[in-house]
């Protein structure tokens, strides 16, 4: 049970969806400190409230194209301590790659169908608020198979499965449970991914994030 109440700013231009999400988040113990219907309103709300997480729709007024992503990238630059969870109706791998280009820590990207599952949404919020990563499996799949791959091509099927789950923010223990294998087996696959991606151990070991970023860079998305 997570005791800390998350402070959330929610940006969604659909009033009905926005109000529904506010009710769901409050019911699950989150504090929605502000809502926004446009990117400028979102940026102002984040500056004023400094929430734990900003939940952002990719498509927002006036053009309903990439206003949300651009606002999220600006938040990353101006308020790096704020976690970002963006959501979209469709798999938008190019936009996901733009958001992740500055680092995967504290970033989430979910499809709207996943957002509708409250437990998954709240779990993702807590994950990004603590500097973790929460990527929708379909987004990860699109990033991994969307373009040129060299080191990614060298991975075995199981190693790719492990890497996808790593990108979604799962621990080795969680991956072991999902794949129904031992945690030691997962550790071996992770070590192999690090080796193939030429990621030696360092004093501040953040190779999991670097492994995810490495394959994102090679997709050319």
TrEMBL record:
GO molecular function: DNA binding
Residues of the Response regulatory domain: 7-127
4-aspartylphosphate PTM positions: 57
Domain of life: Bacteria
Coiled coil: none
This protein's record includes keyword Cytoplasm: no
PROSITE patterns linked: HTH_LUXR_2 (PS50043), RESPONSE_REGULATORY (PS50110)
Domain HTH luxR-type, residue spans: 148-208
Stored InterPro entries: CheY-like_superfamily (IPR011006), NreC/VraR/RcsB-like_REC (IPR058245), Sig_transdc_resp-reg_receiver (IPR001789), Tscrpt_reg_LuxR_C (IPR000792), WalR-like (IPR039420)
Assigned keywords, A-Z: DNA-binding, Phosphoprotein, Transcription, Transcription regulation
A Gene Ontology biological process term: phosphorelay signal transduction system
Keyword hit for DNA-binding: yes
Pfam families in the record: GerE, Response_reg
Protein name, UniProt field: DNA-binding response regulator
């Amino acid at each position: 049970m997570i005791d800390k109440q998350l402070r959330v700013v929610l940006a969604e231009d659909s009033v009905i969806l926005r109000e529904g999400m506010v009710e769901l988040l409050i019911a699950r113990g989150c504090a929605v400190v502000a809502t926004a219907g446009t990117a400028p309103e979102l940026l102002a709300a984040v500056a004023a409230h400094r929430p734990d997480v900003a939940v952002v729709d990719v498509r927002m007024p006036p053009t309903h194209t990439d206003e949300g992503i651009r606002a999220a990238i600006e938040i990353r630059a101006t308020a790096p301590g704020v976690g970002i969870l963006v959501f979209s109706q469709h798999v938008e791998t190019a936009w996901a790659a733009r958001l992740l280009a500055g680092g995967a820590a504290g970033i989430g990207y979910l499809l709207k169908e996943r957002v509708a599952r409250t437990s998954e949404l709240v779990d993702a919020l807590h994950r990004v608020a603590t500097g973790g990563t929460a990527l929708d499996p379909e987004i990860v799949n699109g990033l991994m198979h969307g373009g040129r791959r060299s080191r990614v091509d060298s991975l075995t099927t199981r190693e790719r499965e492990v890497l996808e789950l790593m990108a979604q923010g799962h621990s080795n223990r969680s991956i072991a449970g999902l794949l129904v294998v031992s945690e030691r087996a997962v550790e071996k696959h992770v070590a192999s991914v690090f080796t193939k991606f030429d990621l030696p151990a360092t004093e501040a070991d953040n190779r999991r994030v670097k492994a995810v970023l490495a394959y994102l860079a090679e997709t050319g998305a």
